[in-house]
Amino acid sequence: MKFRVERDALADAVTWAARSLASRPTLPVLAGLMLKVDGDQLSVSGFDLEASTEVDLEVTAGAPGQALVSGRLLADITKALPPHPVDVMVDGTRLTITCGSAKFSLPTMPVDDYPKLPTMPTTAGTVNGAEFAAAVAQVAVAAGRDDTLPMLTGVRLEIEGDKLTLAATDRYRLAVRELSWSPNDPASASAQVLVPARTLADAAKSLAHSDMLTIALSAGGTGEGIIGFSGTTNGRASRTTTRLLDATFPPYRSLLPNEWASSAEIAVGGLVEAVKRVALVTDRNAPIRMEFGDGSVALTAGGDDEGRAEEQLEVTYDGDPITTAFNPQFLLDGLGALPTGTARLLFTSSTKPVVLRPEAADGAEYTYLIMPVRLPG
What we know:
Elements: E1 2-5, H1 7-17, E2 32-38, E3 41-47, E4 51-58, E5 60-63, E6 65-70, H2 71-80, E7 86-91, E8 94-99, E9 102-107, E10 123-127, H3 129-140, E11 154-160, E12 163-169, E13 173-180, E14 182-183, E15 190-196, H4 197-206, E16 213-217, E17 226-233, E18 236-243, E19 262-267, H5 268-278, E20 288-293, E21 296-302, E22 308-314, E23 316-318, E24 322-326, H6 328-337, E25 342-347, E26 354-358, E27 366-370
Antiparallel strand pairs: 1-5, 1-7, 2-3, 2-6, 3-4, 4-18, 7-8, 8-9, 10-14, 10-16, 11-12, 11-15, 12-13, 13-27, 16-17, 17-18, 19-23, 19-25, 20-21, 20-24, 21-22, 25-26, 26-27
Helix pairs in contact: 1-2, 3-4, 5-6
């Protein structure tokens, strides 16, 4: 194998493909990236038996072939190379990288020991890459991180005609986002799958610059097969797949209230800053008390045996006065995910979940539901 390529193109491709590499692989070869030259195309791929990444870029090929080398080391090297064309070739059992006056020689790993990458499933449809990435980021913030509860570590992806619904929960908050997409067959487009949240968020973010992001889904129900995403960024065709979670997502729709007793509208920026200030006097997960009344909300935290903080903000409030309390980080996560400068808080009672929504749902419906913390007495 021998080829020449621009430094930036190689560095970007290697960095992108290395995202799927496990920090502690179960097999040594899973720490490697596969480089394969066929014609004037270089394919760089990584696979950890759960998620795979693959990117193609054009090169000036000297000889076809393939090589498997340490992915993280290759990523570090390519990012540090001087701004000159890069010559890469296999010399026996080593991969040689030459760029200007810099030269590196890396040992290769057995290609035959490397597992075969999953085949990209059948294309289900396309969606705007930036919009999909934003939707995933809004929802994934509510996903659980406890691997002993796998059903809570994923994002539920529901397909129904030309509508995508994303949902995630960790039992203490729930995030739901709906968006439009273009299915290949609108009449039969229907599926419900559970995708690992961290993998989905990483894939969506890395493909956010693709005008059209393709979603590919294998046949079968939840837990069967894989899901794939592909797009083209800066002339590079990138593909990623991940296994679906074999778990049952909670019936979240029953948690969303259809009516409420009171509501508040408040500037997101001011509330975020106030919550951060008031939370300084408490432990990280200690609740912040919020008293809503006519025209204002009073935030308090701490107590007599520790620091205490108070702050009052203007608010447009409709309903009887209500006092509630929230985990400050959970509240900040929801506020940070809102796409508008004004937040709407919808209450049914002081002890029931509160719905957080943007000021106006302009076709991009987002709902963040947060459980209040029960106050003493």
